[in-house]
Known about the structure:
Layout: H1 2-27, E1 30-36, H2 42-53, E2 59-65, H3 70-76, E3 82-86, H4 95-101, E4 112-116, E5 133-139, H5 146-149, H6 151-156, E6 159-163, H7 175-185, E7 190-193, H8 202-223
Parallel strand pairs: 1-4, 1-5, 2-3, 2-4, 5-6, 6-7
Helix pairs in contact: 1-4, 2-8
Amino acid sequence: MKVKVVTRILEANERIASNNKKLFKEKGIFVINLMSGPGAGKTSLLVRTIELLKPRFRVGVIEGDITGTEDAERIQSTGVPVVQINTGGACHLDANMIEEVLPELPLDELDILFIENVGNLVCPAEFNVGEDIKVMLLSVTEGEDKPLKYPLMFQQSSVLIINKIDLLPYLDLNMEKLKERAKALNRDLHIFEISCKTSEGLQDWINYITESNAKKSIEIQTVG
């Protein structure tokens, strides 16, 4: 019975995610689902990313947390529209939660929408929300064993961002082993090594978003 219940939940989520995706496509919005464990630096990455994207793109954010509004307030300080979702205990955002808050965003005025998921390396990977890509953020302080412990997150993501590389001189992390393990799970995974503190590697990440957004625009025009 439990398996059937879980299956129904996932199937219902997929239907709503498909509707969300259709809406985003109609509006021409490139949507990024940003996932990580707690403390990896999702909000810091978003703030830096928004600062670099704002001169060229109209950006919006959906902020997911179990409780609190601190991260949304940080995002709001950048001047972009942001909506807070407090799950009240749920360890991930699902498609229904996203659907419910979309009317609160100026969708006709957005080019790129970031969805900052709840800090968790398990559940967020299982629930599509209508995004174009899933992006996983991993801090160097978390170690090179995470692909072995949380394989689904790496398998479902299009991008792995390895953050806080400014701390590498103080750690025993084997970066090559980490990347090899990640690629073993997903050979198409794009990997970026960055530091939000020093800005190292951030431009490569920005270039990737720009190129991916352009590809989606071309696809929409071609289909249309």
